[in-house]
Amino acid sequence: GFGGGSAGRGIRQSRYLGELRAFGQLESRVTPWRFSALARVIDVGFTLFFDLGTVHSTRPTAAQDWLPHVGTGGGLRVTVNRDFVARADVGVAPVEGWRPRMYINLGHVF
Average of pLDDT values for 32-45? Predict the structure, then answer.
């Protein structure tokens, strides 16, 4: 599906379901702080993202059926030793009336 913390941030979880899907994500990450604590290297950074996708149960018959859904927002990333990532994202989407949705997960989206 499309919607939720991994694809379609800003859109409620699994709002769009179907076997046919196409989506893309653009994410810009910046890591301005790095420090050491308890023999670990900790990076703290931010991200801006833009998610775009469409989902269908059957093959769309008209061009307008392929119109995508959009979600955008930003988040905080904390990385430990470059291999453990904790992230908190806040996304908004026009289809959800621009109401913010928060996602807390482990690992990068991609």
Answer: 96
